[in-house]
Design goal:
Blueprint: H1 2-11, E1 24-28, H2 36-40, E2 45-50, E3 55-59, E4 77-82, H3 100-110, H4 119-156, H5 160-165, H6 185-192, H7 194-215, H8 244-274, H9 281-307, H10 321-342, H11 358-386, H12 398-425, H13 437-478, H14 486-499, H15 505-532, H16 540-576, H17 578-593, H18 607-625, E5 629-634, H19 636-646, H20 650-653, E6 656-661, H21 665-672, H22 674-677, H23 679-688, E7 691-697, H24 712-716, E8 717-721, H25 749-762
Parallel strand pairs: 1-4, 1-5, 5-6, 6-7, 7-8
Antiparallel strand pairs: 2-3, 3-4
Helix pairs in contact: 3-4, 3-12, 4-6, 4-7, 4-8, 4-11, 4-12, 6-10, 7-8, 8-9, 8-10, 9-10, 11-12, 11-15, 12-13, 12-15, 12-16, 13-14, 13-15, 13-16, 16-17, 18-19
Length: 774
């Protein structure tokens, strides 16, 4: 019966329904996901529209509600929008976490401070973030080249002791495979180039596949109305959720950059051998031509990245097909040319030491990233001063700080993989030279960074402990006349104190970013000093310093490897365990909420599917029935609800009421993304919808008040709600009431009261059904 009802409902267009006077409550769940049965509190539900990925569900008894409006005069028709499959899935989806640096740098693009005017400075801010993203792609591919080309093919396969321990490298080793065709240094590099090339191809494939599923989904479009003002937030612009053109351009540029990095790594040592005095003139000329072609293509890649940013004021349906296709193909042709060039027969060429250019590449990337982050901080500070927002995280410097974290994550991941592979290949620790010195020095700063973070966490914990002592008295005041339960009071006070740690996140990010920048600069200086004077003096003081440095480097190397394994394990568990997903899901869902504006290889933006779904549903309902719609969003669902409301026409938006609970709209999004969810944007949303009510608890670590200025605040916020609902055992709660925190807001009587209040506000003056052409 359910399948038949589903097909019947899907075949009936929304525009043909005649449910005038019927109210709709559209429920949107939050982080962690749920089922339509749980959302609608009914074991029998039917999908009325959507697919296996995201869909709208109803109770079976409500499928034909539009044909029976008299049965819904005193209650709304409830629909549940389930979008959890957009962000979760099987455990293999944990591999997306390997793209975390790309996601983090994409977040930095959206953390731009609030500003009025200064469009050129805003565009320059976006350009700097895109350049940081490009360096991360080069860094990841360079790390793959370091592992495959330098450590495996050049150093290990070229050393008899190392090649003997790894039989799979035997056909590449000149010691094991005497006069083997593949044992020449250039041909070994050509074979090893398949690994970073495959990585780049995989990133291109994943980006293109998700681009077709997400960025190519056309959102609800409309012509701007005379009274429409999109200046307070760009989330209401027609092209905000349609980044098809930009992502395609960036994908072509980043793919080409990755292939060019591989080509340069393959050709560098061969070119150095050919440039020696008395080298073959033909090969020397070919190397110059190849490097000129590589440089020219790299300039084109930079031009593509710098030339165009996001186009949000209109629905840009163009696609630069020639550029998207030809740029990666040109880079691939140069890579094949580099492989042929390196594989040429060169008598007397042997591999020794490290592959040429590795230290310069990683050191140069770290230097460029540091300079870009500093420039980004200057631009962000300039923008913040034009329109200061006291609630903005880190006084407008959140974007540069997060971009620094993205660079640090990229460095830790690339350095960690290189160190672990080097340790695995070199069992004795003496047969190969290992990764470049700069990567070793970057590993050595990890213990120092962890010590700084542990100290900061200790200070934050001390502050939470002091706040807990204050909350003990507040809990007793909230429940006067009830018998004292010390354990109960402590549990409530502890939960309240821990919930406030979310508001300390800016301090944690600021300290981490500043410490990383300083230690990174120190690592570059230390690496440079070590290369110039590798042998320390033999006196006791120098030996002590040298030993401490080696200990820090070894400890940092193992910490990186352990952290990388732990990171992947947690990610896999988050996709299999619902409780683990609720714990870390908010960070992931915040990151993938935003469109890919700075990096095309970042995980896909689920909101580019979810927001058009919601806006289409709200628009078709209001057009068919004349209005009366309450969109009810919990946690991240409240952010989707607000974004969808901004996409509606102002005339339609005025017929929508908004109910949010456990909402991070101001506490997280308003502080970290002030240009899009700042006070002006949230105030405009309050005035543009029919009514907005927000519920929150003091024990909720994610949700909080909207904090609108002036008289608007009490109109929106109700709270904080009581949590737990009962302190001790009562006639209504004979068993101990749980501390709910961020979950189960519907269990509070205030939820039903506020929903009824919104429906009652919508009941008077129900507008007549509007024509289809409206």
């Amino acid at each position: 019966m359910g399948r038949a009802q589903e097909r019947a409902s899907a075949d009936r267009p929304a525009e043909s329904l005649d449910g005038s006077g019927t109210a709709l409550e559209l429920l949107v769940h939050g982080v962690g996901g749920t089922t339509p049965e749980a959302m609608l509190d009914d074991p029998r539900t039917v999908r009325v529209t959507g697919d296996e990925t995201a869909a709208v569900f109803r109770r079976c008894e409500d499928v034909d509600a539009e044909s029976r409006p008299q049965d819904y005069q005193d209650k709304p028709v409830q629909e549940a929008y389930v979008w959890c499959n957009l962000t979760s899935g099987n455990s293999a989806r944990a591999l997306w976490l390997l793209l975390l640096p790309f996601m983090v740098v994409n977040l930095a693009h959206w953390m731009r401070p609030t500003t009025r005017g200064h469009s050129r400075t805003v565009r320059f801010y976006g350009l700097l973030v895109r350049l940081v993203g490009l360096t991360l792609t080069v860094l990841l591919v360079a790390a793959a080249c370091e592992v495959a080309l330098d450590l495996a093919a050049w150093q290990c396969a070229g050393t008899h002791a190392c090649a003997d321990r790894h039989s799979w490298l035997g056909f590449l080793s000149p010691e094991v495979s005497q006069d083997g065709w593949w044992s020449r240094p250039g041909r070994r590099l050509a074979v090893a180039a398949a690994v970073p090339t495959a990585l780049t191809t995989l990133l291109w494939y994943l980006s293109r596949r998700t681009w077709s599923a997400y960025e190519s989904q056309r959102p609800l479009s409309h012509e701007p109305e005379p009274d429409e003002d999109t200046g307070r937030t760009s989330l209401g612009r027609p092209g905000f959720w349609y980044g098809r053109r930009l992502v395609a351009r960036l994908r072509a540029a980043h793919t080409a950059a990755g292939l060019l990095t591989v080509a340069a790594a393959v050709a560098s040592s061969a070119a150095r051998f050919d440039h020696r005095p008395g080298g073959p003139a033909v090969l020397d000329t070919l190397s110059l031509l190849l490097y000129a072609a590589l440089a020219a293509t790299a300039v084109v890649v930079l031009w593509v990245v710098c030339r165009r940013g996001r186009s949000e004021n209109r629905l840009d349906q163009e696609l630069d097909e020639h550029l998207v296709r030809r740029l990666p193909l040109a880079a691939l042709a140069l890579l094949l040319s580099a492989v042929v060039y390196a594989g040429w027969e060169r008598p007397g060429w042997e591999s020794s030491g490290r592959l040429a250019g590795g230290g310069t590449t990683f050191g140069g990337l770290a230097l460029v990233q540091g300079l870009l982050v500093i420039a980004l901080a200057v631009v962000a500070r300039t923008l913040h001063r034009t329109h200061p927002d006291p609630r903005a995280a880190m006084r407008g410097l959140a974007g540069p700080a997060v971009a620094m974290l993205a660079c640090a994550l990229g460095g830790v991941m690339s350095g960690g993989v290189s160190q672990r592979v080097s340790d695995w290949l070199d069992g004795t620790g003496t047969s190969i030279a290992g990764p470049p010195v700069v990567l070793t020095w970057q590993s050595s700063v990890i213990p120092v960074l962890l010590l700084a973070l542990l100290g900061l966490c200790a200070l934050l914990g001390r502050g939470a402990w002091r706040l807990r002592r204050t909350e003990l008295g507040e809990v007793r005041l909230d429940h006067p006349g009830e018998p004292e339960d010390t354990a109960r009071t402590r549990a409530i006070a502890t939960t309240r104190a821990l919930a406030t740690l979310t508001d300390r996140a800016p301090l944690l990010v600021a300290v981490t970013s500043a410490t990383t920048l300083i230690l990174g600069a120190g690592a570059l200086v230390g690496a440079k000093f070590t290369e110039e004077a590798p042998a320390p003096a033999a006196d006791h003081a120098h030996a002590l310093v040298h030993g401490a440095a080696q200990t820090a480097q070894a400890l940092g190397s193992w910490l990186i490897g352990f952290g990388f394994i732990l990171f992947v394990t947690w990610g896999r568990r988050a996709y299999k365990d619902a409780s683990a997903r609720r714990t870390i899901g908010i960070l992931w869902d915040v990151g993938t909420f935003w469109p890919r504006a700075a990096h095309p290889f970042a995980p896909p933006c689920y909101a580019e599917r979810a927001v058009p779904d919601l806006s289409w549903r709200m628009a078709t309902w209001t057009r068919a029935t004349g209005g009366r719609l309450v969109i009810s969003g919990h946690s991240q669902g409240s952010v989707l609800a607000a974004a969808a409301a901004w996409q509606l026409k102002p005339s339609v938006r005025k017929r929508v009421a908004l109910l949010t609970y456990g909402s991070p709209l101001e506490r997280l999004y308003g502080r970290w993304f002030p240009a899009h969810f700042g006070p002006a944007a949230l105030s405009s949303l309050h005035h543009e919808v029919d009514c907005w009510r927000n519920l929150y608890r003091a024990t909720d670590p994610i949700g909080g008040p909207i904090r609108l200025p002036g008289d608007c605040g009490p109109e929106v916020d109700r709270g904080p709600l009581k949590d737990p609902l009962a302190y001790g055992r009562t006639a209504r709660h004979p068993l101990p009431a749980p501390i709910l925190g961020h979950s189960d807001y519907q269990a509070d009587p205030a939820f039903a009261e506020e929903r009824e209040r919104l429906l009652a506000r919508l009941r008077p003056e129900v507008p007549a059904p509007r024509p289809d052409g409206d």
